[in-house]
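Long-time lurker, first post.

We've been arguing in lab meeting about whether flavin-adenine dinucleotide would sit comfortably in this protein at all. Half the group thinks yes, half thinks no, and nobody has a model to point at. So I'm putting the question to the forum: if I give you the sequence and the SMILES, can you give me back a predicted structure of the complex? Inputs are below. Any interpretation is welcome too.
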Amino acid sequence: MRRSSDPDVIARYAADESNTFFAENVEAIFFPQSEADLAEILREATASGTPVTVSGGGTGLTGARVATEGGLVVTMELMRHAEPREGFEQVSSVHDGLDYTVMLDAASGHAWCPPAITLDAVEALLAPHLLFPPAPTERSAMIGGAVAENASGARSFMHGPTRAWIEALEIVLPTGDTLHVARGDVLADGRTLRFASREGTPYEVQAPGYAMPATRKNAAGLYAADGMDLIDLFVGSEGILGVITAVLVRLTPRPTLFSDTAFFASEEEAIACADTLREAAANGLPLVSLEFYDPGALRFMADHPQVRPEHQAAIFTELDAGDPAIVERFAEIIIGCDPMDDWFADSDREREAQRDFRHALPENVNTFLRQHGTDKLCTDYAVPAGQFPTMMQAYHDACDAFLQVTGRPEASAVLFGHIGDYHLHIDFLPANAAEEDASMEQYAILAQHAIELGGTITAEHGVGKKTLPVGGRRIPYLEVMYGREGLLEIARAKVGLDPHRVLNRGNMMPASLLDEIR
Ligand SMILES: Cc1cc2nc3c(=O)[nH]c(=O)nc-3n(C[C@H](O)[C@H](O)[C@H](O)COP(=O)(O)OP(=O)(O)OC[C@H]3O[C@@H](n4cnc5c(N)ncnc54)[C@H](O)[C@@H]3O)c2cc1C
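Top reply:
Settle the argument with this. Predicted structure of the protein with flavin-adenine dinucleotide, as C-alpha cells:
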C-alpha cells in the first residue's frame, strides 16, 4: 500500500476549506485501495495507540479531516471503484481526469458507490435518467464525506438530507473489524445497539440520551433516537466511529427542472411568498428548492443584470416541472405574491444563468474576504417552523449590531439560504481583525438563540473541531447544544467501537475529554 512521509505530500492534507485548523506532527499519509488495506492500517494503529484521521475531498468547513492530534492521515482518494455486486451493472466514466466506477441497478434505482467518488462524478455517471438527490453546494465533496457529515443542500427541501438516501454501508471499525450493515438489519432496543462484526466480534453501543432538535435538518452530534437503525449512528458521525468503504445509495428519476427567481420590494413580501410556496409544497406542489436572499445579499450582487437597486429581497425556487399544469399552478402562485420582477428560467441556458446567479453570491463574498485578508464566518443554524420569525428578528439584530461596528451598509453581512427548511446562513464580512472578533461575538449570540428556540447550531456543515466563545472562554461547539453530559455520551458511544480512541480524535469533542472516559 502506498504511504508517504514527504513533507510536501503531508502539507496537502494539513487543512480543509475552513482554513482555521491545521495539522501538526503528522507522521505519514496512507493511500488505501481496499477494505483490507484500511483494516490493516486501523488494526495496527489501535495496537500502537496511534491517532488516525480520515480525509475525503477536504471541502469540510469545520476542520473535521484535519489531523490536529498528529499520527497518520488516511486519504480515501484512491478508492474510486465500487466492487462488483450480483444484480448490479458496472458503470464507469472519467470525470475531471479521474476514472470512477459505480455498480448500478437502474431498475430498482440503487447504486453501490465507492467512498471517493465526488458528488459531481456521481451526477455525471447517473445522467441522464437517474439522480442521487442530496445536493450540497460543493460538488467536489466525496460521497464518503457527504455520508460522514450527513450533508444537505438546497434540494433537501424536497428530498431531505443525505441520511434519507443511504440504504447500506460497509465500514472498517477502528479495531480493524469490518461491518456490513443494511437499513433494517439492526434496530436499537431503546438506545442500545447490539451487533456483531463480520469477524464475529460482538459490540454493544449506547446511543446518546439527548433529544434531537425538532428541525427539518440537523448535523450536530451523533444521531440518537429510541429504536434507531444502526446505519443512522454512522451517517453524520464525522468519521469518529469507523471508515466508510462502500455506500449503497437510493436514486430517483431525474426530474425536468424549472427554476425561477422572484425579486421583491421588501423582505416581508419575500418571506410571505416563501410561506405560501411552502404551504403549496405541503399540498402537493413538487417544489424542489426554496431559497432566500436578503437586501444585503442582493446589494452584493448589484452588478448582475437582473438585480435593480429597488429590489430588497428575492426568492429562488426549483420545480419538478414534468407536467405543464404544474408550471401553470406555480406561475399563478408567484404572480399572486406580486413580485417587482420575476426571472422565469424555462430553457437550459436560463437555468444555467440562474445557477450562476446563485453561485455569484459566495464568489463575491470570497473575493471581498480575500481582498481584506479576513476569514468568513458563516452561520448554519436552523430552527423549528414556529420559531422562524423570532430567529429572523435575531438575525436582523445581529446584522444591525455588526453594522454598527463596520459602518459599511454596502458590505457588512449577507443573509441567504434555505428558507424552505427554516435554515438561513449569515456570512459576516469582516474587513479587519477587530471586525472578525465582533462577528464571532454575534455568531455566538445567535447560536444561543437557535438553541433556546429548540433549533440546531449546525443544520448541514457539522461540528468538527469548532469551539465557541462563551463567558470569556472557548468551549467545544457541540457542548453549547448538548451540554458536557451530551459530549460524554457521544464519547462513550465512540469508545464502545474505538476502545483505544484512535480514530478522528478531536471531532465533536476535544481529545482530552475522550481520554477521560474509562
Ligand atoms: C463552498 C462550499 C460550499 C459548501 N456547501 C455545503 C452545502 O451546501 N451543504 C453541506 O452539507 N456542506 C457544504 N459544504 C461543506 C462540505 O462540502 C461538506 O461537509 C462535505 O460533506 C465534506 O465532504 P468531503 O469529502 O470534502 O470531506 P472532508 O472535508 O475531507 O471530511 C469531512 C469529514 O468526513 C470524514 N470522512 C471523509 N470521508 C470519510 C469516509 N470514507 N469514512 C468516514 N469518514 C469520512 C472526515 O474524516 C471528516 O471528519 C460546503 C463547503 C464549501 C467549501
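For your lab meeting: Residues 16-17, 54-61, 64-65, 76, 115, 136-138, 141-142, 144-146, 148-149, 151-153, 238-239, 243-244, 362, 460-462, 504, 507 surround flavin-adenine dinucleotide (CB under 6 Å). Residues 2-75 form a domain with the Uridine Diphospho-n-acetylenolpyruvylglucosamine Reductase; domain 2 fold (CATH 3.30.43.10). Whichever side wins, do check it experimentally.
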